[in-house]
Write a structure and sequence with these properties.
There is one protein chain. This protein is mostly beta strands. The strands form 2 sheets. Strands 2, 4, 5, 6, 9, 10 and 11 form a 7-stranded mixed beta sheet that branches. Strands 1-3-8-7 form a 4-stranded antiparallel beta sheet, with no helix packed on it. It has strands spanning about 5, 10, 20-25, 30-40, 45-50, 55-60, 65-70, 75-80, 90-100, 105, 110-115. A hairpin with a 4-residue loop joins strand 7 (about 65-70) and strand 8 (about 75-80). The N and C termini lie far apart (about 40 Å). The protein contains no helices and 11 strands.
Length: about 120
């Protein structure tokens, strides 16, 4: 089973940028469909951006045009570039790994992103 460690969260002003990283260890990284989720206080965890089994990307409507998910298989890392951040983007961001074709899922511990002036 893969282990995931997120980094890159923090406090940023509205309009600013952050890049989150999720480093994976364990079995073959390329066998996983990677994704980013977030959970704001009092709300359910939601998908932010992810790779599909076929390798394409999907985004929640609220981040389209502002966030970009990418991966570097050689570094076993997935990234979330977040631009034009808004206060409503404030949440704990979680990295998720799902074995392609199966519902075998691993989660990271989460990293806090706070957008505030």
């Amino acid at each position: 089973q893969v282990q995931l460690v997120e980094s890159g969260g923090g406090l940023v002003q509205p309009g600013g940028s952050l890049r989150l990283s999720c480093a994976a260890s364990g079995s073959s990284f390329s066998s996983y469909a990677m994704g980013w989720y977030r959970q704001a206080p009092g709300k359910q965890r939601e998908l932010v951006a992810a790779f599909t089994d076929g390798g394409s990307t999907v985004y929640v409507d609220s981040v389209k045009g502002r966030f970009t998910v990418s991966r570097d298989n050689a570094k076993r890392t997935v990234y979330l570039q977040m631009n034009s951040l808004k206060p409503e983007d404030t949440a704990v961001y979680y990295c998720r790994a799902r074995v392609i074709g199966l519902q075998i899922i691993s989660w990271g511990q989460g990293t806090q992103v706070t957008v505030s002036s």
